[in-house]
């Protein structure tokens, strides 16, 4: 399969970037091809511009060549992998902005011309994998809705095919985790990604 | 007296969301409330948490570009998001 790995962390030496590298290593070990979309290193602009908002419902909603490239990568991906730290109970702004600007009509979904209803645009995606670290313990994450996970495994999942699977890997209460916990989670990430089908 | 901070987010001044924001401020004014509006798009607010932000996460208040938002948050007793 071909995987697009979307990564959001500003520091090169972060645990999130290390997890992304392990995910990529796992995918390669599993015989998959990989394209990494490292949003901070690419200088991805998170906020949809006024011009993009105006173009959103037109024939060509994508105005930025970087966004066009990412839309093309998504269009060829069987597997979408997201790696990010959960901040403020959800996706880092740069990753939420990536969804807003890349998953536009014609990419993530389309509006049915007759009914006006939303139709999935990601029928080719066989699996969505989310990998996130959390400052909070799991009980708190559940109490406040785990918004990043819901966006990726429910909202984005709705734009995929009926048989698209989802996989979620979370490391909770990271501030009180041990280096063994983090090493174990990183190994789990690599193993899981090597085994995805 | 109510001190309301209206945090507003839409790139298009002609949008419905902008019209809603205007109705909110009209209602606040008619109640005699004090209010401030933080218009994130008009301010060119940078949404992305940067490496510098990350490094000084535990020592906030060092970024002058965010001071106004901090002051507004300290000032208000009601938060409105539009």
Number of strands of chain B: 3
Uncertain residue segments of chain B: none
Overall pLDDT of chain A: 96
Low-confidence stretches of chain A: none
Number of strands of chain A: 7
Write the CATH fold name of chain B.
Answer: Rossmann fold
Percentage of residues in DSSP E strands of chain B: 15-25%
Number of domains of chain A: 1
Sequence of secondary-structure elements of chain A: EHEHHEHEEEHHEH
Just give the CATH class of chain B.
Alpha Beta
CATH superfamily of chain B: Flavodoxin domain
Order of helices and strands of chain B: EHEHHHE
* Count of alpha and pi helical runs of chain A: 7
Q: In angstroms, what separates the terminal alpha carbons of chain B?
A: 21 Å
Q: Helix/strand-derived class of chain A?
A: alpha/beta
Cross-sheet strand order for the largest sheet of chain A:
2-1-3-6-7
Based on the coordinates given, report the CATH architecture of chain A. 3-Layer(aba) Sandwich
What is the CATH-assigned architecture of chain B?
Answer: 3-Layer(aba) Sandwich
CATH class of chain A: Alpha Beta
Radius of gyration of chain A using CA atoms only: 17 Å
């Amino acid at each position: 399969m071909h995987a697009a790995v979307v990564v959001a962390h500003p520091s090169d030496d972060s645990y999130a970037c290390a997890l992304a590298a392990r995910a990529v290593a796992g995918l390669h070990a599993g015989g998959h091809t990989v394209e990494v979309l490292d949003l901070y290193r690419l200088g991805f602009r998170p906020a949809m511009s006024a011009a993009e908002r105006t173009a959103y419902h037109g024939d060509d909603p994508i105005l930025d060549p970087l966004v066009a490239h990412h839309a093309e990568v998504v269009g060829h991906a069987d597997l979408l992998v997201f790696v990010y730290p959960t901040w403020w109970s959800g996706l880092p702004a740069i990753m939420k902005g990536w969804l807003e600007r890349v998953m536009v009509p014609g990419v993530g979904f389309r509006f049915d011309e007759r009914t006006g209803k939303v139709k999935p645009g990601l029928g080719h995606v066989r699996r969505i994998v989310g990998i996130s670290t959390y400052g909070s313990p799991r009980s708190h994450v559940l109490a406040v809705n785990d918004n990043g996970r819901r966006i990726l495994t429910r909202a984005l999942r709705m734009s995929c095919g009926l048989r698209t699977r989802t996989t979620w890997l979370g490391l909770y209460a990271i501030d009180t985790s041990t280096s063994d916990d983090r090493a174990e989670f990183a190994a789990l990430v690599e193993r899981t990604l090597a085994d995805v089908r | 007296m109510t001190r309301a901070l209206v945090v507003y987010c839409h790139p298009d001044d002609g949008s419905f969301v902008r019209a809603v924001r205007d109705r909110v401020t009209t209602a606040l004014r008619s109640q005699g409330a004090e209010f401030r509006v933080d218009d994130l798009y008009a301010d060119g607010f940078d949404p992305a948490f940067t490496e510098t932000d990350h490094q000084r996460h535990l020592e906030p208040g060092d970024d002058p570009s965010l001071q106004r938002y901090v002051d507004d948050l300290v000032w208000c007793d009601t938060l409105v998001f539009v």
